[in-house]
Amino acid sequence: MKIGIISLGCCKNLVDTENLIGMLQQSNQEITYNLNEADAIIVNTCGFIDPAKEEGINTILEMAEYKEKNCKKLIVMGCLAERYLDQLAEELPEVDCFITLKQYNQFGPILTEVLGEKIANDYGKCPQVLTGKPWMAYLKIADGCDNRCSYCAIPLIRGGYRSFDIDALVDQAKELAKRGVKELNLIAQDTTRYGLDNYGKRRLLELLGRCNEIEGLHWIRVLYMYPDEIDDELIEGMAKLDKVLPYFDIPVQHGSDRMLQIMNRRGSVESIIRLVDKIRETYPTPALRTTMIVGFPTETLEDVQLNLEFMKRVKWDRLGGFTYSKEEDTPSYDLLDELSQEEKNRRYEEMMKLQEEIVEAKNQELIGKTLEVLVEKQDGLTGFYRGRSVFSAPDGIDGEVIFKSEEPIEFGSFVPVTITRIKAHDFYGNRVN
Q1: Domain containing residue 56: CATH number
Q2: What is the pLDDT of residue 395?
Q3: Is Zinc one of the keywords UniProt gives this record (predicted)?
């Protein structure tokens, strides 16, 4: 059977999709990228925020049109199916089967019944099939979340935090390296909590140390680090691991202590500043990335100003911003949201304008420096190569390094590039021979 798969949402969802593809291929099913010839289509959905929900519904409806052609079965899985199963089943009769997150351990029998093909129940036990660039992979080290931020529905959808077995993760990382993976990105809703639930202590540093010894891996990057769980031992320990990048993705959400308390975020603004200072004392050129929410219920102009002052103090290398939107069944849903969308947008634009100014000034320090770059593509017209440095995760929002090279370069290679010019988050330069 030819099966087409659409994966929506975050990289954690993508790993679920890659595990599903591995299971289907082990059962001798053919994965096709041509949906016109697909006998069945599976859509892996996100249900976190309104734009993701809308994208999920629109994609399902679009895929349903293929049932007028060759497609016999349309299957929907993922967070949207978990969160809105009854409503979706009633409103989308075009869908033949919904598979919730809790049913992933029964993928085999469910798909066998729906597809009429024998599918082994091996989800998560088969090799992860990489759907992106062959030199990069995500390693999901845990699922769920225990942080209970007042605006977030992830614990409601994904459940409590569950760390995966450390030996199994190391084996998986070794297998990925054997297949040519050079950049390994560790992901979870909260990577810094890894091990606390099943081992009684945080073991992220140990996991990083064991992955650091794997032959073939060149870069190891950690994403989604909760600030109050990044201690001196982790920072100093990471600095001793030559493959672990000094890339700190630390979503802090706000620069006002009052807002952090209402958001049910642990720690304080001052503790975050101390953390950033420690990182910059330990590494000569670390990459610091964060996310911020503006327009949260009860946010005052004083809170906005405190947030801007916090940004000026920290000077984040990368910052992603969001305007607050209500999420049903979360604690913040019942808070009085008095701000108009226009005012939220104004505050967002003010924040991002400041961030642009900070980054523009900060990036000038990188001109003349040489960065290691993972080469990923080449422009057909100009011949310029494009790749990523320590400052850019593979999710496409951190910018690229664009450079000239007199000699041809194999994609997936690492080369030194001297930076000559910077435009926003994109760096321009020349390869060092």
Answers
A1: 3.40.50.12160
A2: 87
A3: no
Q: Do the annotations mark residue 71 as ligand-binding? A: no
Judge if 387 and 424 occupy the same domain: yes
The answer on whether 145 is annotated among ligand-binding residues is yes
* Partners of 182 in the β-ladder: none
- DSSP annotation of 197 reads T
Domain membership flag for residue 87: yes
211 assigned ligand-binding residue: no
**Distance from C-alpha of 433 to C-alpha of 381, rounded to nearest angstrom:** 23
Do residues 157 and 265 share a domain? Answer: yes
Helix (H) or strand (E) holding 157, with range, is helix 154-158
Let me know: does 39 contact 1? Beta carbons within 8 Å.
yes
Domains of the chain: total: 3
Q: Are residues 152 and 296 in the same domain?
A: yes
For residue 105, the enclosing domain spans 2-115
**Six token digits for residue 338:** 């008095």
181: Cβ–Cβ under 8 A, 6 or more apart, which residues? Answer: 130, 134, 135, 136, 137, 216, 217
Tens-place pLDDT, residues 29-85? 999 999 999 999 999 999 877 788 899 999 999 999 999 989 999 999 999 999 999
Establish whether 97 is an annotated binding residue. Answer: no
